[in-house]
Write a structure and sequence with these properties.
12 helices; 5-stranded antiparallel sheet; 10-stranded mixed sheet; 19 strands
Length: about 400
Amino acid sequence: MTDIDSLQARFVDTLAASGDVSDPEWLTAFREIPRGPFVPYYFTQIPELSSWVLVESSSPTWAEGVYSNHPLITQLNGDDTRTETARRGQPVTGVSTSSSTTPSLMASMLEALDVQPGDDILEIGTGTGYNTALLCHRAGCDHVTSIDIDPSLVSTARDRLTELGYQPHLAVQDGTKGYAAGAPFDRIIATVGIPGVPREWIAQTRVGGIIVLPLDRRDCGGLLARLTVQADGCAQGRLLPDFGGFMPLRHLDRHDAADRAFRAIDDGGDQRPTTLPVDIVTDEADPFEFFTALTLPGGGWNHLTFTPNNGNPTETWIAQGDGSWACHTTGTDGVHTVRRGGPVPLWDRIETAHHHWRHIGRPTRDRFGLTVHHGRHTIWLDRPDSPHQWELPALSSP
């Protein structure tokens, strides 16, 4: 057994031991399909320089990174020339636009998809092709269609899949439109964050079919939904218990917090103390963090944390697309302070949401569900006819 084989075996054993992969058939798929061929290189960030360097298969650290339970950035700014620049040893800048998803998150979504023999599957977001290969292993290539908006990603994924003996149907397509040419599907799985469920996805899914997707709420929430399509054209189901952060559709702006920080340096804003620490809205492990992503007008936010070089306390900036922002700091005395600006008092809304969440018993994310009907997205607590319901707020445009 080679070192790579040993790392692959240890990697899958870790997924199994942690319970991240419980279905024996998916476990077999993870064992038999190596991640390495789909991630021959990835980017790592140099925080102090705000730039990226490339880690290739020739690097001594490559294999440890690939066969780990971590997401790996594989493309910046949708521009493959940056990869070539980095390959020459030059640090590059940019925003990640494609990645190999955290394997435990992949497994959670694949198991939620509940693939049955003969199911026809549509994957939204081909990416590296690794998740596509797992679907092919389980369902057979003839039953798998995968689409991506990026032609270079589709071409590269096709080559990698072919080398391993998989030939699913791949197409360059805007994922929001689904893939009418291959419909209807029994299962749709999205590996890109999207603000809501497109009507096309529901229309292209057979009655009783399942849609698993990440709901994009900017930098917060990590919301995963598993919906079943009903005869009346409604799609309904619960949120999964796991955090699932994915890259958004490429037309969605994700730089609001950084933009607001730069623009508001000289804008005093309105400053006051607050009893809430900033972690409640920036830490995915905090039991409240997801609730604001579900209920706050404006549809979530972006956040940015940095420590000023003048010795002042660390600042966390939170911003929405409409220009509303808050800057949270905690002094050495433990006192929390927030500075606010923009059209709506963002931090006040967060405090109100936190009070409401405590009032209804601090529910966890798996107690919530989603109903999508005629484009309307309704969040409910415990059951669809619950007295606690919210309209899923649309992401505001920058």
